[in-house]
Amino acid sequence: MTEPPGWPRAALVTGANRGLGHALVTELLERGVRLVVGTTRSGGDAPAGAVAVRLDYADADSIRAAGAEVAAAVDTLDLVVNCGAVNVAPGLPRAESKGPAGDLSGAALRVLLDVNVVGPALAAQAFLPLLGPGAVVVNVSSSRGSLALASDPGSVGYAVSKAALNMVTRKLAAELAPLGRTAVAVDPGWLRTDMGGDAAPRSAADAARDLVALLTRSRETLNGRFVTTGGEDLPW
Predict the structure, then answer these.
(1) Global pTM value
(2) CATH annotation of 10-228
Protein backbone atom coordinates (compact mmCIF):
# COMPACT_ATOMS: atom_id res chain seq x y z
CA MET A 1 0.00 0.00 0.00
CA THR A 2 3.00 2.26 -0.43
CA GLU A 3 2.24 5.48 -2.27
CA PRO A 4 4.53 8.12 -3.77
CA PRO A 5 5.21 11.31 -1.79
CA GLY A 6 2.37 13.76 -1.57
CA TRP A 7 -0.38 11.39 -0.44
CA PRO A 8 -3.25 12.06 -0.66
CA ARG A 9 -3.43 13.60 -4.12
CA ALA A 10 -7.23 13.74 -4.27
CA ALA A 11 -9.51 13.77 -1.23
CA LEU A 12 -13.20 14.15 -0.44
CA VAL A 13 -14.60 15.34 2.88
CA THR A 14 -18.28 15.50 3.75
CA GLY A 15 -19.71 18.15 6.06
CA ALA A 16 -17.19 20.69 4.78
CA ASN A 17 -19.18 23.79 5.71
CA ARG A 18 -18.35 23.70 9.43
CA GLY A 19 -16.56 21.99 12.30
CA LEU A 20 -14.14 19.17 11.67
CA GLY A 21 -15.12 18.82 8.01
CA HIS A 22 -14.28 22.46 7.31
CA ALA A 23 -11.01 22.14 9.24
CA LEU A 24 -10.03 18.97 7.37
CA VAL A 25 -10.61 20.54 3.97
CA THR A 26 -8.55 23.56 5.05
CA GLU A 27 -5.74 21.33 6.33
CA LEU A 28 -5.64 19.28 3.13
CA LEU A 29 -5.56 22.40 0.97
CA GLU A 30 -2.76 23.87 3.04
CA ARG A 31 -0.79 20.64 2.56
CA GLY A 32 -1.05 21.11 -1.19
CA VAL A 33 -3.43 18.26 -1.99
CA ARG A 34 -4.13 18.54 -5.71
CA LEU A 35 -7.90 18.17 -5.51
CA VAL A 36 -10.06 18.52 -2.41
CA VAL A 37 -13.80 18.00 -2.74
CA GLY A 38 -15.88 19.36 0.12
CA THR A 39 -19.51 18.34 0.30
CA THR A 40 -22.26 20.25 2.07
CA ARG A 41 -26.03 19.92 2.23
CA SER A 42 -26.45 23.07 0.13
CA GLY A 43 -23.54 22.53 -2.26
CA GLY A 44 -21.91 25.76 -1.04
CA ASP A 45 -19.98 27.11 1.95
CA ALA A 46 -16.95 24.84 1.52
CA PRO A 47 -13.55 26.50 2.11
CA ALA A 48 -12.17 28.53 -0.78
CA GLY A 49 -10.09 26.36 -3.08
CA ALA A 50 -12.19 23.23 -2.62
CA VAL A 51 -14.53 21.81 -5.21
CA ALA A 52 -17.96 22.20 -3.62
CA VAL A 53 -20.51 19.44 -4.18
CA ARG A 54 -23.99 19.01 -2.74
CA LEU A 55 -24.45 15.90 -0.59
CA ASP A 56 -27.13 15.50 2.05
CA TYR A 57 -26.83 12.35 4.16
CA ALA A 58 -30.61 12.36 4.62
CA ASP A 59 -31.21 12.36 0.84
CA ALA A 60 -30.11 9.21 -0.99
CA ASP A 61 -30.67 10.86 -4.38
CA SER A 62 -28.24 13.64 -3.51
CA ILE A 63 -25.63 11.05 -2.50
CA ARG A 64 -25.94 9.23 -5.83
CA ALA A 65 -25.79 12.54 -7.69
CA ALA A 66 -22.68 13.55 -5.74
CA GLY A 67 -21.01 10.28 -6.70
CA ALA A 68 -21.70 10.95 -10.38
CA GLU A 69 -20.55 14.58 -10.13
CA VAL A 70 -17.28 13.67 -8.46
CA ALA A 71 -16.66 10.82 -10.92
CA ALA A 72 -16.96 13.35 -13.75
CA ALA A 73 -14.29 15.53 -12.14
CA VAL A 74 -11.70 13.01 -10.95
CA ASP A 75 -10.58 9.49 -11.88
CA THR A 76 -9.31 8.46 -8.45
CA LEU A 77 -9.82 9.38 -4.82
CA ASP A 78 -7.10 8.60 -2.30
CA LEU A 79 -9.08 9.65 0.77
CA VAL A 80 -12.78 9.84 1.65
CA VAL A 81 -13.77 11.19 5.06
CA ASN A 82 -17.36 10.77 6.23
CA CYS A 83 -17.45 13.69 8.62
CA GLY A 84 -21.01 15.02 8.76
CA ALA A 85 -23.21 14.06 11.71
CA VAL A 86 -25.92 15.29 14.08
CA ASN A 87 -26.40 14.58 17.77
CA VAL A 88 -29.95 15.96 18.02
CA ALA A 89 -32.74 15.59 15.47
CA PRO A 90 -33.41 19.08 14.07
CA GLY A 91 -36.76 20.54 15.01
CA LEU A 92 -37.48 18.04 17.77
CA PRO A 93 -36.98 18.35 21.56
CA ARG A 94 -33.44 17.36 22.56
CA ALA A 95 -34.67 14.70 24.98
CA GLU A 96 -36.26 12.79 22.10
CA SER A 97 -32.75 12.17 20.73
CA LYS A 98 -30.72 12.08 23.94
CA GLY A 99 -33.00 10.56 26.56
CA PRO A 100 -33.79 9.70 29.30
CA ALA A 101 -35.37 6.56 27.87
CA GLY A 102 -38.89 7.68 28.66
CA ASP A 103 -38.50 10.74 26.43
CA LEU A 104 -36.98 9.09 23.34
CA SER A 105 -39.02 9.14 20.13
CA GLY A 106 -38.84 6.93 17.08
CA ALA A 107 -38.89 9.98 14.84
CA ALA A 108 -35.78 11.46 16.44
CA LEU A 109 -33.89 8.17 16.53
CA ARG A 110 -34.64 7.53 12.85
CA VAL A 111 -33.21 10.93 11.93
CA LEU A 112 -29.95 10.20 13.76
CA LEU A 113 -29.66 6.74 12.21
CA ASP A 114 -30.38 8.12 8.72
CA VAL A 115 -27.82 10.91 9.00
CA ASN A 116 -25.11 9.21 11.06
CA VAL A 117 -25.25 5.66 9.69
CA VAL A 118 -27.24 5.25 6.48
CA GLY A 119 -25.82 8.44 4.97
CA PRO A 120 -22.14 7.57 5.48
CA ALA A 121 -22.77 3.99 4.31
CA LEU A 122 -24.36 5.20 1.08
CA ALA A 123 -21.63 7.82 0.62
CA ALA A 124 -18.96 5.12 0.90
CA GLN A 125 -20.92 3.12 -1.66
CA ALA A 126 -21.16 6.08 -4.04
CA PHE A 127 -17.42 6.76 -3.99
CA LEU A 128 -16.27 3.13 -3.85
CA PRO A 129 -15.60 2.92 -7.61
CA LEU A 130 -13.25 5.91 -7.35
CA LEU A 131 -11.00 4.50 -4.61
CA GLY A 132 -7.48 4.10 -5.91
CA PRO A 133 -4.68 1.81 -4.69
CA GLY A 134 -3.99 2.48 -1.01
CA ALA A 135 -7.11 4.61 -0.62
CA VAL A 136 -8.60 5.17 2.83
CA VAL A 137 -12.21 5.65 3.92
CA VAL A 138 -12.46 7.35 7.31
CA ASN A 139 -15.73 7.21 9.20
CA VAL A 140 -15.60 9.85 11.92
CA SER A 141 -16.90 8.10 15.00
CA SER A 142 -16.89 8.82 18.72
CA SER A 143 -16.01 7.12 21.97
CA ARG A 144 -19.75 7.47 22.63
CA GLY A 145 -20.13 4.60 20.18
CA SER A 146 -17.99 2.25 22.28
CA LEU A 147 -20.04 -0.48 23.97
CA ALA A 148 -17.19 -1.14 26.41
CA LEU A 149 -17.05 2.50 27.52
CA ALA A 150 -20.82 3.04 27.76
CA SER A 151 -21.47 3.54 31.47
CA ASP A 152 -23.36 6.84 31.65
CA PRO A 153 -26.93 7.60 30.59
CA GLY A 154 -27.79 10.17 27.93
CA SER A 155 -26.83 10.84 24.29
CA VAL A 156 -28.73 7.67 23.42
CA GLY A 157 -29.40 8.33 19.74
CA TYR A 158 -25.92 9.62 19.02
CA ALA A 159 -24.25 6.74 20.87
CA VAL A 160 -26.37 4.11 19.15
CA SER A 161 -25.73 5.65 15.73
CA LYS A 162 -21.96 5.78 16.25
CA ALA A 163 -21.91 2.17 17.44
CA ALA A 164 -23.74 1.23 14.25
CA LEU A 165 -21.32 3.30 12.17
CA ASN A 166 -18.46 1.39 13.76
CA MET A 167 -19.99 -1.86 12.49
CA VAL A 168 -20.38 -0.36 9.03
CA THR A 169 -16.67 0.44 9.19
CA ARG A 170 -15.74 -3.11 10.19
CA LYS A 171 -17.78 -4.62 7.38
CA LEU A 172 -16.37 -2.18 4.84
CA ALA A 173 -12.84 -2.87 6.07
CA ALA A 174 -13.30 -6.60 5.48
CA GLU A 175 -14.49 -5.87 1.95
CA LEU A 176 -11.70 -3.43 1.14
CA ALA A 177 -8.77 -5.37 2.65
CA PRO A 178 -8.35 -7.80 -0.30
CA LEU A 179 -8.30 -4.79 -2.63
CA GLY A 180 -5.51 -3.04 -0.76
CA ARG A 181 -7.82 -0.30 0.52
CA THR A 182 -8.57 0.73 4.11
CA ALA A 183 -11.60 1.65 6.20
CA VAL A 184 -11.10 3.00 9.71
CA ALA A 185 -13.28 4.54 12.42
CA VAL A 186 -11.66 7.57 14.06
CA ASP A 187 -12.68 9.41 17.21
CA PRO A 188 -11.43 13.02 16.96
CA GLY A 189 -12.27 13.70 20.61
CA TRP A 190 -14.43 16.40 22.14
CA LEU A 191 -14.07 19.42 19.87
CA ARG A 192 -15.00 23.10 20.04
CA THR A 193 -17.58 23.03 17.28
CA ASP A 194 -21.28 23.80 16.96
CA MET A 195 -21.94 20.25 18.12
CA GLY A 196 -19.25 20.05 20.81
CA GLY A 197 -19.74 23.51 22.29
CA ASP A 198 -17.32 26.10 23.66
CA ALA A 199 -16.33 24.05 26.72
CA ALA A 200 -14.63 21.36 24.63
CA PRO A 201 -10.87 21.12 25.21
CA ARG A 202 -9.75 20.72 21.61
CA SER A 203 -10.06 22.73 18.42
CA ALA A 204 -11.26 21.26 15.13
CA ALA A 205 -8.05 22.51 13.50
CA ASP A 206 -5.90 20.51 15.93
CA ALA A 207 -7.95 17.37 15.32
CA ALA A 208 -7.75 17.84 11.55
CA ARG A 209 -3.98 18.25 11.65
CA ASP A 210 -3.54 15.15 13.79
CA LEU A 211 -5.90 13.06 11.66
CA VAL A 212 -4.13 13.90 8.41
CA ALA A 213 -0.77 13.22 10.04
CA LEU A 214 -2.03 9.84 11.29
CA LEU A 215 -3.31 8.82 7.87
CA THR A 216 -0.14 9.90 6.13
CA ARG A 217 2.03 8.09 8.67
CA SER A 218 0.13 4.91 9.47
CA ARG A 219 -2.66 4.20 7.02
CA GLU A 220 -1.20 0.77 6.10
CA THR A 221 -1.96 -0.46 9.65
CA LEU A 222 -5.38 1.12 10.25
CA ASN A 223 -7.79 -1.14 8.39
CA GLY A 224 -10.73 -2.23 10.52
CA ARG A 225 -9.60 -0.36 13.62
CA PHE A 226 -11.28 2.17 15.92
CA VAL A 227 -8.69 4.75 16.92
CA THR A 228 -8.05 8.25 18.19
CA THR A 229 -6.38 10.81 15.95
CA GLY A 230 -3.16 9.89 17.75
CA GLY A 231 -3.50 6.28 16.62
CA GLU A 232 -4.44 4.76 19.99
CA ASP A 233 -6.97 1.93 19.81
CA LEU A 234 -10.35 2.41 21.43
CA PRO A 235 -12.44 -0.51 22.71
CA TRP A 236 -15.39 -1.50 20.60
Answers:
(1) 0.94
(2) 3.40.50.720
